[in-house]
Amino acid sequence: MNDPAPPPPTITVVIPVFNEQAVLPELFARLTALFDAHRDCTWRAVLVDDGSRDPSAALVRAQSARDPRFTLVELSRNFGFQAALSAGLAHAHGADAVVTMDADLQDPPEIIPHLVAAWRDGAEIVRATRRTRAEAGLRRAGFDLFHRVFGRLSDFPIEPNSGTFGLLGRHALAAFEQLPERHRFFPGLRAWIGFPTADVLYDRHERAAGVPQQTFRRLVRYALDGVFSFSHLPLRLLTYAGLFVALMGFAGGAFFILWRLLGFENSQQGFTTLVTLVLFLGGVQLIGIGVLGEYLGRVYDEVKRRPHYILKPAVTAPRAPQP
Ligand code: UDP
Ligand code: MG
Known about the structure:
The protein is α/β, with parallel strands linked by helices. The protein has two domains: about 10-215, Spore Coat Polysaccharide Biosynthesis Protein SpsA, Chain A; about 235-305. It has helices at about 25-35, 55-65, 80-90, 110-120, 135-155, 170-175, 185-190, 215-230, 235-260, 270-305; strands spanning about 10-15, 40-50, 70-75, 95-100, 125-130, 160-170, 195-205. It is elongated and about 100 Å long. It starts with 9 loop residues before the first strand and ends in a 19-residue tail after the last helix. Magnesium ion (MG) binds next to loops.
């Protein structure tokens, strides 16, 4: 007797949305076409509205009414991309695999079947890796600098050309949900959890419409999260800098004592040297305090144990008056 065919795998696509009114209709159309073309999987899309100030949430709600494969998760305010992503992953519970992607169609949905194919071939984590980058100018330079620094600092190197776009299998998703930290740097955590990983190459496009919702400041903060949560090297560098300055101090002191013992006069000059030294040491100490502060602030955020995000209460039909 033949075994019944296994049920098709459930694939959930998680998409953070913040003021994406302009791209949502095209996103829905392309995802629907994809879902309809690949009937060998059960598809769901979880769109997390991260406190949009435009009608994005209403658009998703309307889409979900038309097509129940689309689900809206609403956060109570704008918590930022990483929190929105976490909310989406939490709502993908039970899926066999989760695809994470941006709403702006820089990550083309047409790549998703390739991610799924790599997962079916045995990879638990699939990264969509850019063959090209659409960004230019300052953003591009920033990305390049970050990846060079991060590659040096972290014990868990991340693929410089892959971002959020990718797939997590069930086990990787479960591992990800065990990570309690608030400051999340998704590509780093994805590298940290391990598991067999595959790469799928693709061409990254410009946004389909609208402007980038991640401000440059946010990206810098995200980059700092990456460095400070994956490396203690900044602290160690401070220790080295301290040792170096202290050694210089000793050497200088010994030199001046010898100078006196040999019978030379102390010159009254040296104002410039003094001012330079005082400013230099002051600077080193302030940088040191700053680096300590970065770690301390993160420790503080972690011990507060606030939730990563708050959900908006679901809109329900008004209750009938009680008799
Ligand atoms: N996004 C979000 N919350 C934010 C900012 C952005 O959920 O506070 C979403 C945004 O809607 C998009 C994704 O995160 O789906 C990436 O944002 P964006 O395209 O602005 O960033 P970039 O392409 O510069 O990384
Ligand atoms: Mg984008």
